């Protein structure tokens, strides 16, 4: 039995990392090759038209597998979108320290650090975007000195990345002030995750706390910001606590509607339930670069709340959404039929159900159900003559 379990464990491991490859990028900026690890989503080869967000990992040598495992788990439950992971190797002959070199007086990349900064922005990103199918949404992550280094991309007039994951950053001089000043100027949605361990290194933790305070003072609603301090965690162990929190923070809107979202954001609405659903998926597309049709479970949640609140006219908006995402399915016509039925218009409802019966079934909606609804509406129409 143990041999069977071991076999399946090894098989799962092989499948999970079947898309993990390595590459060496010849860099003019660095004057040498730089090794990277590439993790492609399971659907990359089978869905050739699909594009993916990209997660760039500094300290990719030890952060890659930790992030990859968390993402695979989230994708399995449809809580996280598939994404491309790029891990930058920095463990050869003290590379991470050379890569993170800064001018201590000015607090910006210096010499080899400046070369590495230019390598990422001027060589690595264009290389990945040319070779792979990527969306414009990019995240960068790092730990201690590399987490601090990631923040330098915020100093540009237009930040190079849309999301930053900074795990116990050893902040450069004045960084706790400059980042907050930048956040006050942000003009489009932006994601920033910051973390530390309760038992973190004192000289690292104190500037992080100042940064947190300054960001809160800036209070820009376009900045999606979260700061976690983990109890009983050290500078190194806090990383495993942080990774799932960071990913779920950035991709919060992607998750299917759950009880917490329903209670806190939907149930409190007086109207606009269909608009809420439409906006949720528009944010996924326009901000996160993730295009997926509205999940049927999410659709059903909104339909139920519309019916419960007698907001029957909003079913027309649901029909519009359905006709965009599922143009060949009976969902849109069904919603219009349901709207007319609830508004006391059985003849018009019957017509919509008739249209729906000629289209493709979807979810719980079947041709037999449409025929039942047609008979029900026709009978009701005769009684109300």
TrEMBL record:
GO molecular function: kinase activity
Statement: the UniProt record of this protein carries the keyword Repressor: no
Xref: InterPro entries: AB_hydrolase_fold, Esterase-like, Mycobacterial_A85_antigen, TPR-like_helical_dom_sf
Species the sequence originates in: Flavobacterium cheongpyeongense
The keyword NADP belongs to this UniProt entry's keyword annotation: no
Name by which UniProt lists this protein: Histidine kinase
Cleaved signal peptide residues: 1-18
SUPFAM superfamilies the record matches: alpha/beta-Hydrolases
Keywords: Kinase, Signal, Transferase
Protein origin, superkingdom: Bacteria
A Pfam family matched in the record: Esterase
């Amino acid at each position: 039995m143990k041999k069977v379990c071991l076999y399946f464990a090894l098989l799962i491991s092989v499948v999970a990392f079947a898309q993990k490859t390595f590459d060496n990028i010849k860099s003019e900026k660095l004057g040498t090759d730089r090794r990277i690890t590439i993790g492609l989503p399971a659907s990359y080869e089978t869905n050739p038209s699909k594009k993916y967000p990209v997660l760039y990992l500094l300290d990719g040598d030890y952060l890659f597998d930790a992030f990859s495992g968390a993402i695979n788990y989230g994708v399995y439950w449809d809580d996280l979108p598939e994404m491309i992971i790029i891990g930058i190797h920095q463990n050869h002959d003290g590379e991470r320290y050379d890569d993170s070199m800064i001018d201590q007086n000015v607090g910006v990349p210096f010499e080899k650090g400046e070369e590495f900064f230019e390598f990422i922005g001027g060589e690595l990103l264009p290389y990945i975007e040319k070779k792979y199918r990527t969306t414009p949404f990019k995240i960068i992550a790092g730990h201690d000195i590399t987490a601090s280094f990631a923040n330098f991309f915020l100093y540009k007039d237009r930040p190079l990345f849309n999301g930053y994951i900074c795990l116990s950053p050893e902040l450069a001089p004045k960084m706790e002030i400059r980042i907050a000043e930048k956040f006050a100027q942000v003009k489009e949605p932006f994601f920033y995750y910051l973390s530390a361990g309760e038992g973190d290194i004192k000289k690292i933790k104190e500037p992080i706390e100042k940064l947190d305070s300054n960001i809160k003072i800036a209070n820009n609603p376009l900045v999606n910001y979260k700061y976690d301090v983990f109890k009983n965690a050290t500078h190194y162990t806090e990383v495993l606590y942080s990774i799932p929190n960071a990913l779920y923070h950035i991709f919060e809107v992607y998750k299917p509607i759950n009880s917490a979202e329903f209670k806190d954001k939907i149930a409190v609405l007086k109207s606009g339930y269909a608009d809420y659903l439409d906006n949720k998926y528009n944010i996924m597309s326009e901000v996160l670069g993730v295009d997926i049709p509205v999940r049927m479970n999410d659709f059903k949640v909104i339909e139920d709340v519309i019916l419960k609140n007698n907001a029957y006219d909003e079913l027309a908006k649901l029909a519009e959404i359905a006709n965009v995402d599922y143009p060949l399915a009976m969902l849109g016509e069904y919603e219009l039929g349901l709207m007319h039925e609830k508004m006391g218009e059985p003849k018009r409802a019957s017509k919509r159900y008739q249209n729906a019966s000629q289209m493709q079934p979807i979810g719980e909606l079947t041709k037999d159900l449409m025929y039942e609804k047609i008979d029900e509406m026709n009978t009701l129409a005769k009684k109300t003559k």
